[in-house]
Amino acid sequence: MKVFILNCGSSSVKYQLLDMDNESVLAKGQVERVGIDGTFLVHKRPGAADYRVELGKADHKESISRVLEVLADPTYGVLKSTKEINAVGHRVVHAGEKFSGSVRITPEVKEALRECIDLAPLHNPPNLQGIAAIDALLPDVPQVGVFDTAFHATLPQKAFLYGIPYEYYRKYKIRRYGFHGTSHKFVSERAAELLKRPLSELKIITCHLGNGASITAVQGGQSVDTSMGFTPLEGLIMGTRSGDIDPAIIEYIGAKEGLDAGGVINILNKKSGILGLSEIGSDMRDIEDAYFRGDENAKRALEAYCYRVAKYIGAYTAAMNGVDCIVFTAGVGENAPIVRKLVCDYLGYLGVELDAAENEKRGEHEISTAASKVRVWVIPTNEELAIARDTKRLALGN
After folding, report:
1. Strand pairing of 12-19 and 2-8?
2. pLDDT at 148 > cutoff 90
3. What are the tens digits of pLDDT across the range 86-145?
4. Burial class of 33 by CB neighbour count within 10 A (0 to 12, 13 to 18, 19+)
5. How far apart are CA 375 and CA 194, in angstroms?
6. Helix, strand, or coil (residue 256)
7. What pLDDT, on a 0 to 100 scale, did the predictor assign at position 398?
8. What is the torsional sign of CA 319, 322, 324, 329?
9. Are 90 and 144 contacting, i.e. CB atoms less than 8 angstroms apart?
């Protein structure tokens, strides 16, 4: 069974084609600069050189059409025909409170996603455009929506409500939704496999640390708290996002800088976080290099970043009344040993002991010592495979 995975952003289309008989990746790639001049496609196949093609100025539908053409191209493709595609899975950012799991795409589901546009104005519209493109290009192929927010549908009310008038939740559904749910679900399930214990018995804290970052408390296989909130701006210090701040800062900066609320929110989303604190950049690799050269700006940003991660781990240990395993994943979590070390340096009170040599290694492995009371693992996330598994299950009707 061949499953085509689409992740449509406002100006990009990322894709993978998987053979679900053995869960292997047949091809993957992305289209950049969608909807603006200079649109281009980079297509990758295992064991072959990357193929790049210029697309002029292509919208989402045309971009996906060109991807399908390349997948079936005699020279660069991996299919004899797009008729070999059995199902399409879409990464969809926001489902509000409407879905607690992945679903087959139906007219009712599309309408529900349109109703959630106010909650994710930058994400749901391109997600819907990707669905519409497949409707037109592969009309007989079943489609599945896999939602970033769905894993967090199990949050208890005490965790998802804000301390604002309850009528705003009742009227506008203002609450904590959480994101990166597909990743948190995937790595928590993998952790249970590696620990050889039932997921239902475990208390796991998953740290998805990338340019966007979030932490989730997973108890008995369910998300019980998570750091991102009504939007992905809340929580950890991130690449360009501020994370948690005093809300009054928005009005204060606005008054000082002559900005409206939208202008300040733009700064908090795009000019803050590691970028704003370091005044170097948002890429953690650059921050690490500068940190080891003794750069004080990098030191300031990295230490604040790791401190915030450690605080959330402590909070979620309290929320679950204990923790069995801590997982680091995503670009920073998987590839930045200094981040893992600085975070774990705060966790001695939990009995965490880091193996310095193991922490320097790459790939899936345990980085805690045999004596550590809490197991600490690096587990590469694979959101595309998680989406493909749900897509296969729902497309086959089981």
Report:
1. antiparallel
2. no
3. 999 998 888 778 777 888 999 988 888 888 777 777 677 888 889 999 999 999 999 999
4. middle
5. 11
6. helix
7. 60
8. positive
9. yes
Long-range contacts of 36-42 (CB under 8 A, 24+ apart): 36/11, 39/63, 41/66, 41/67, 41/70
Domains 2-147 and 197-383 belong to one CATH topology: yes
Beginning with the edge strand found earlier in the chain, give each strand of the sheet holding 12-19 in spatial order: 51-56, 39-44, 24-32, 12-19, 2-8, 85-92, 143-147, 103-104
* β-pair partners for 13: 8, 31
Please, where are the H alpha helices in the chain? 60-71, 107-115, 124-137, 157-160, 166-172, 181-195, 248-257, 261-270, 273-278, 284-292, 296-320, 330-335, 337-344, 356-359, 383-395
Domain ranges of the chain: 2-147, 197-383
From the candidate CATH numbers 3.30.420.40, 2.60.40.10, 3.40.630.30, 3.40.190.10, the one assigned to the domain spanning 2-147: 3.30.420.40
Contact 234, 257 (CB under 8 A): no
- CATH code assigned to 197-383: 3.30.420.40
Strand partners for 204: 218, 325
Contact at 8 Å (CB) between 251 and 242? no
Predicted confidence at residue 127, as pLDDT, reads 87
Cα 273 to Cα 224: distance, rounded to the nearest angstrom: 26
Give the H/E segment covering residue 24: strand 24-32
Residues 374, 375, 380, 385: what is their CA dihedral angle, to the nearest 10 degrees?
-90
Closest residue by Cα to residue 234 from 274, 315, 304, 179: 179
Q: What share of the chain is helix, strand, coil (3-state, %, to 5)?
A: 40, 20, 35
User: Which are the catalytic amino acids?
Assistant: 148
| Residue 53: Cβ-neighbour burial (10 angstroms; 0-12, 13-18, 19+) | middle
Residue 59 has which token pair?
A: 């919208």
